[in-house]
Specification:
Elements: E1 11-15, H1 21-30, E2 36-40, H2 52-68, E3 73-76, H3 79-92, E4 97-98, H4 101-111, E5 116-121, H5 123-128, H6 130-138, E6 143-148, H7 152-157, H8 164-179, E7 184-187, H9 196-203, E8 208-211, H10 212-226, E9 239-243, H11 247-258, E10 265-267, H12 270-284
Parallel strand pairs: 1-2, 1-3, 2-9, 3-4, 5-6, 5-7, 7-8, 9-10
Helix pairs in contact: 1-10, 2-3, 2-12, 4-6, 4-10, 8-9
The chain binds D-glutamic acid.
Length: 289
């Protein structure tokens, strides 16, 4: 599609699968006039158990695909991909690129009163130390306790959001956080906002939960406004989805994340993603695309 104005171009968002829909939902709620293209890498999910090298490769391929679609802004909705590949993607593409770590870290640094912040995420996110680094760079006095919760993602995908099994798993993962007496907990994974109720029950009402999806959406609204890229409702709104596997499953599970049905889903081949990334790399000598 050709766009007359930069502001009319869509926002591109990618995630390892359906989880990034938590971010998309907040963006649609805050910025209803914006067109969006969401890409879920459902064939290669989960990213959270993979090496940084592999996640960087996938992230560059997903970004190349979206940039080629003519987006005005790229959002990396996946915490794992943001944690390990944000800087590389920023240095590769000319459009603004936003991850989910910075807004979540900032909100946590502002929320804590006792200087004890917990961060939960996938193995790769926690291993990268990205949240801890970012929070400490904002306030070196804050002590950050990080913990991976690998079973949370499959539980959410299974639709188990609030039962005794999820509660037992949450108790096990979060005991250490409780012992440290944290007063703020960052939900550092796309799937965790769906477990808020159980996490709140385990942690108690006094612990502030930071939802990285909400923080991201606030941040996008601010950046589009200050850069003059905010679209108005005068031009039509398009919401398009691409997945690398199982569009039907994406639609089914996606409902849990969006509380709405997802239309206009197209399957793309991994081989074509790899080709596009290679072509762009060759064309630009891997400077800006
Ligand atoms: N999207 C991932 C994240 O936010 C969770 C799912 C995965 O491991 O790919 O870290």
């Amino acid at each position: 599609m050709k766009y007359e104005n930069m502001a009319d171009k869509p926002i591109g968002i990618f995630d390892s699968g359906v989880g990034g829909l938590t971010v998309l939902k907040e963006i649609h709620a805050r910025l209803p006039a914006e067109s969006t293209i969401y890409m879920g890498d459902t064939a290669r999910v989960p990213y959270g158990i993979r090496s940084a090298e592999t996640v960087i490769k996938y992230s560059l391929e997903n970004s190349s695909f979206l940039v080629e679609k003519g987006i005005k802004l790229l959002i990396i909705a996946c915490n794992t991909a943001s944690a390990v590949s944000l800087n590389i993607i920023r240095n590769t593409f000319k459009i603004p690129v936003l991850g989910v770590i910075e807004p979540g870290a900032k909100a946590a640094a502002q929320a804590t009163k006792n200087g004890l912040v917990g961060v939960i995420g996938t193995e790769a996110t926690i291993k990268s130390g990205a949240y801890g680094r970012t929070i400490r760079s904002l306030d070196p006095r804050i002590k950050v306790i990080e913990r991976s919760c690998p079973l949370f993602v499959p539980l959410v995908e299974e639709g188990w959001l609030d039962n005794e099994v999820v509660e037992m798993v949450a108790q096990r993962y979060l005991t250490e956080m409780k012992l440290y007496n944290i007063d703020t907990l960052v939900l550092g994974c796309t799937h965790y906002p769906l477990l808020k109720k159980v996490i709140k029950k385990v942690m108690g009402d006094d612990v502030v939960l930071i939802d990285s999806a909400i923080e991201k959406a606030k941040n996008v609204a601010k950046i589009l406004t200050t850069s003059g890229l905010l679209k108005t409702l005068e031009t039509p709104v398009h919401r398009k989805y691409y997945v690398t596997d199982c569009p039907d499953r994406f639609q089914e599970i996606g409902k849990r994340f969006m509380l709405d049905s997802l239309e206009d889903i197209t399957k793309i081949e991994i081989a074509s993603l790899e080709e596009k990334a290679m072509a762009l790399k060759n064309a630009c000598g891997c400077g800006g695309v």
